[in-house]
Every structure is written in structure tokens, then in C-alpha cells.
Write a structure and sequence with these properties.
It is a multi-pass membrane protein. Its EC number is 2.7.8.2. Keywords: Membrane, Transferase, Transmembrane, Transmembrane helix. The chain is mostly helical and 406 residues long.
Length: 406
């Protein structure tokens, strides 16, 4: 079981806390959500975020149909549908909290669903974004995956230690999603190949002599990654500062909290090494590899959120890191034999066996994450006497006040 029986009473102590400093959210999106869009959902409806995720799944299916190699131009309507689908997902996700407050169903299960679905969406959007910018099966796609998952992991790690979800003036769930919607909308008119052209030249800007040639000829897609890297660095610093401040206010040691970043960054020391040593994964089978990494990441995030909800110790270990470590060590042995004369023979030997191993890892990650989801949801629903996908105890404003249903 993923939740100890002794920790279940902490579910009733859970209180959602969030700080959203986004001006776009405050003055544009929230009024639209709370005054207009939320009225489309009946009070009997639950799990709006999960419903909105269906739009992203449809987007992924159209990508796999028209552009499975992530380097072709699709019909314009495909990109337009991606923009609409992602915006609808963002809207459904934002309305989910408002719906929970309307129906008096706010609780830890909603928090778990929200973060779990967002984690899966993050991986799928990386693939869709790579297809929209014709990144192909490349290191740039892997770098995009690293940055996107890192930003999400930082937010989850920060929320565990501070007890509050912080969204700054510029954040991924708000401005980041809207930026992606804009990218998809522009691609609908310009085509995906547009993003591979030199940005300064296409915008008619003068060449700046102090910039090296590699920067002057940088494409739109590469400049977007530079922008994302700057935002990610800012998020790392800001999240770390918030966690350090929270730990100091409680007179708790800082080092154990900072070690919570180790599971993510340790994993991402092994991933690029594995891909470098086994380039056939990168060149030919990057999609199942990305889905495997994404499921492993969603599992790690789920463990952190569950620990946050139940006030349990931080989960430093992720069992799904072991297949990544095994694959990396298997590929590293022959490399060391050639370079240093010290190493070990590869069991997989590269080629089809390596690809079969990646597919097996994908299946394993889906099984582990699926069992985690079922077990945690079942335990929460049984303890709090609620249903997962529907409302078991509807709120009746005329009824006398009873004990709160989480």
C-alpha cells in the first residue's frame, strides 16, 4: 500500500493553499472561468480536469496520424485544433477547483487528480510541441522534455515543503500554456517549418555585431528554448528560496529538503548518457522512450503529492529509476572496455534487443503507475467515504449543517 494506515487521518487535515500572482490569471482568465465558463458544468459533474484531458489525448492522436516523426508539416486545421484543445484543457483544469467549491467537494482527491493529470499532460505536450516546431527525433526534443518536467517537479517539490502552490507573475500553468496555444495558432497559418528559420532574419531585425554567428542565425525554435532555459533557471532559484525560507521559519534543516531534488536530477544524469550510448533509441524510437520517462515522472510526482496530502516523509526513491540505471549500465560497459580497457559486456547488445527493452520499460512504468493510481484512489475514497468519478454526497444548502465531507 502506498498510504500507511496511520497516515490516513491526515487526509482530513488537508487544506488547499495557493498563491497566484499572474496578472493574466487575475484580470482575464479567472473572471472568464468563474463568471462564464463554469456555468456550463452541472453541479452533479465531477473530475472536470480528467474530462479536459481528453482534448489533449485527441491532439496527440492527430499528431501521431499526421506527423509521427515530429518533422513534417501537417494541415493547418491540425495545429488550430491543438491550440483549441490545449486551451480547453487549461480551462477545464482551472474550472475544476471552482466546481469543487461550488459542490462543497474540495479535498485531497481533487489535488491528487489535478497534479496527476497535469503531469501526464506535461509529457504529451512536449511531444505535441516538438511536432509543431518540427524538432524531430533529436536532442532538442529531449532537452525540451527535461526542461518541462523539471519545471513541474520544482513546483511539486516546493509545494510539499511549503504547503502552498506558488504561481508567479509568469508561470507554466498560465502564461506557459497560453504561449503554447499561441505557438500552435501561429503554426496553423505559417506551417511547422516556419519555426526552423532564422528568427532575426525573418523578423527583419538588424544583425547585432556583438552576437556570435551561431546566435545570429538561431532559429525561432532554438530562441524559444533559450527563453525557456532562462525561465527555468529563474524557477529553480525562486523555488529553492521559497523552500529554504519555509524550512527556516519552522527551524527545520535545509539539506534534507534540497536533497529532494536529487531523484529528478540523478535520473537526468543517466537518461542523456543512455541515449548517447544507444543512439538508435534517439533516432528511431524516441516516442516510446519519452512516454516511458513521462510515466516514470508522473509516478514520482504522484508519490510526492501523496506524501504531501498525508504528511508523510518525502519519497526520495523511485523504483522506476532502476530500469533507466540498468539500461545505462548495460550500454556503458562496452564503452568503457573500448576507452579504458575496463568494463563489462552488454547483455542487450544494442539494436532490436535494446528497443525491446525500452518497450518493456514502457509497459513496466504504465503498470507501476497504474497500480499506484488505483491503490491511492481506492484508499482515499474508502477512508473519506467518497466516490472517485462522481459525487456521492451532494451538497444540499437547505440541509442542517453536518460534518464536512472531504
Amino acid at each position: 500500500m502506498y498510504i500507511r494506515q496511520s497516515k490516513l487521518p491526515n487526509l482530513r487535515k488537508y487544506q488547499y493553499s495557493a498563491v497566484d500572482r499572474s496578472l493574466v490569471s487575475r484580470y482575464i482568465l479567472k473572471p472568464f472561468y468563474t463568471k462564464c465558463f463554469i456555468r456550463l458544468f452541472p453541479l452533479s459533474m465531477a473530475c472536470i480536469t480528467l474530462s479536459g484531458f481528453a482534448f489533449v489525448v485527441v491532439n496527440l492522436l492527430t499528431l501521431l496520424w499526421y506527423n509521427p516523426t515530429l518533422d513534417r508539416d501537417c494541415p493547418g486545421w491540425v495545429y488550430a485544433s491543438w491550440a483549441a484543445g490545449l486551451f480547453l484543457y487549461q480551462t477545464f483544469d482551472a474550472c475544476d477547483g471552482t466546481q469543487a467549491r461550488r459542490t462543497r467537494q474540495s479535498g485531497p482527491l481533487g489535488e491528487l487528480f489535478d497534479h496527476g493529470v497535469d503531469a501526464m499532460n506535461t509529457t504529451l505536450e512536449v511531444v505535441i510541441f516538438a511536432g509543431a516546431m518540427n524538432l524531430g527525433y533529436s536532442w532538442v526534443t529531449i532537452l525540451t522534455l527535461f526542461a518541462s518536467l523539471c519545471a513541474f517537479y520544482l513546483t511539486t517539490w516546493e509545494e510539499y515543503h511549503t504547503g502552498t502552490l506558488y504561481l508567479g507573475l509568469v508561470s507554466g500553468p498560465v502564461e506557459g500554456v497560453l504561449t503554447l496555444c499561441a505557438v500552435y495558432a501561429i503554426t496553423a497559418f505559417k506551417g511547422a517549418s516556419f519555426w526552423q528559420r532564422p528568427m532575426l532574419e525573418m523578423l527583419g531585425l538588424p544583425y547585432l555585431d556583438f552576437l556570435p554567428p551561431v546566435l545570429r542565425n538561431l532559429s525561432f525554435a532554438k530562441w524559444y528554448l533559450v527563453y525557456g532555459g532562462i525561465i527555468l533557471a529563474f524557477n529553480v532559484v525562486q523555488s529553492s528560496r521559497n523552500v529554504i525560507r519555509a524550512r527556516r521559519s519552522k527551524n527545520l534543516p535545509i539539506t534534507p529538503a534540497l536533497l529532494g531534488l536529487a531523484p529528478y536530477f540523478t535520473t537526468w544524469l543517466a537518461i542523456p548518457l543512455w541515449l548517447y550510448l544507444r543512439p538508435e533509441i534517439l533516432r528511431e524510437h524516441i516516442l516510446p522512450f519519452i512516454f516511458f520517462v513521462g510515466a516514470s515522472f508522473a509516478y514520482q510526482v504522484g508519490l510526492i503529492i501523496t506524501a504531501h496530502l498525508t504528511r508523510s516523509p518525502f519519497p526520495y526513491f523511485n523504483v522506476l529509476f532502476l530500469p533507466i540505471l540498468v539500461g545505462t549500465l548495460d550500454a556503458l560497459g562496452p564503452f568503457l572496455q573500448v576507452g579504458l580497457g575496463l568494463g563489462w559486456p552488454s547483455v542487450l547488445g544494442g539494436g532490436p534487443y535494446t528497443i525491446a527493452y525500452v518497450l518493456a520499460c514502457l509497459g513496466l512504468s504504465i503498470g507501476v503507475y497504474g497500480s499506484f493510481v488505483v491503490d491511492v484512489i481506492t484508499n482515499i475514497c474508502d477512508y473519506l467515504d467518497i466516490w472517485c468519478l462522481s459525487i456521492k454526497h451532494p451538497y444540499d444548502p437547505s440541509a442542517p449543517e453536518q460534518k464536512k465531507v472531504e
